[in-house]
Amino acid sequence: MKQTKTSKAWMREHLNDHYVHLAQKDGYRSRAAYKLLEISDKDNLLRPGMVVVDLGSAPGSWTQVAMQKVGKSGAVFALDILPMDPVPGVAFLQGDFREESVLHQFEAMLDGRTVDLVISDLAPNIAGNAMMDMPRSIYLIELALDFAQRHLRPGGNYLVKAFQGSGYPEYLALLKQHFEQVVTRKPKASRDRSNEIYLLGKNKRADTAPVFDLPSG
């Protein structure tokens, strides 16, 4: 298939990208690792001994960073609809966390462990139509927030990628209902032209209900 001018420009940018080269050198699966590393360093997010859940983990660069930071005394659980090559020490489940059966499997893997941090760099398949893409994105991160609300310990933290646009202010307001503090982060590895932003909910409130009223059993 013949490349378009847009795809050629993207490929040229990708091949010349500092973080792409750095990821290859450092052994990370994608440049996204440096987004999490910067946020973690700034906010003291990942620490030894923590229990971390990575939603939408493939190809696994955030999972790699999380495992490195929490060490053998901690635990990392990862979930994605796509396959992911194993990361040593990480428990991975392939499945769609929008499905109750997959969530039940994931909860069984947690085996009652208290979760300190939920991270999510997931995004929907982009159609190039904001009228379609933004609602899909918001729905996914609403589901991620619901998961965090159900499994995070009181005082736990939640980091998620969002896209600024329709539905973003409402999601930000929802996040503030569930956490004592909400801050925005735009790490250096996030391209300037991208409208992605990272939202960090700090100190989960103990008295808030789940986002969705899901049936039990």
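the 2nd protein, sequnce then structure:
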Amino acid sequence: MAIPDKIAAANKINEFLRNVIALGGFRLKYRITVDPPLPEERDWERPEILVELVGPDSTFILERGGELLRSLELLAIEMLRLPGNEHEKVRFDCMNSRAMRLEELRLSANVAAEKVRKSGTPYEFAPMSSRERRIVHLALRDFDDLHTESQGEGGRRCLVVYPKNYKPVSKPVHR
């Protein structure tokens, strides 16, 4: 389901960011785009509102794996009262970090696929967010000889890549 009034939502995000940046003393500028064009190969990411941040404090926003960037995004999503299955409708990015992370995850998925094919044993990724697990699931969705599953709880939830007809044995999972 689409965001009912994207312009009103973008205006709310604009007001929110203007206050956060001013009151936080950040040296940042931002651009909000409604229905942004995205490359075809990124079919798993189709935000209706894209917020791009840039400026001298960009490195601060991206510290600790982009924790502050994700926090700003989450606050905007909560402010718009989007249900959990609609969170992908709003995306925040800073210095193209999201595109770089997507490419990193895609490459990691391919490396994991090759390791599983060669060894015949599962490959377990380090814990990651639900969005990042989804990207890896989708990157491997067309590989008929493999299947993926998310395992674990909360912040320890990770993704495991298995050979298609894998039968568990008592061997440890490779990392």
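The mean pLDDT is 88. Residues 97-119 form the longest helix (23 residues).
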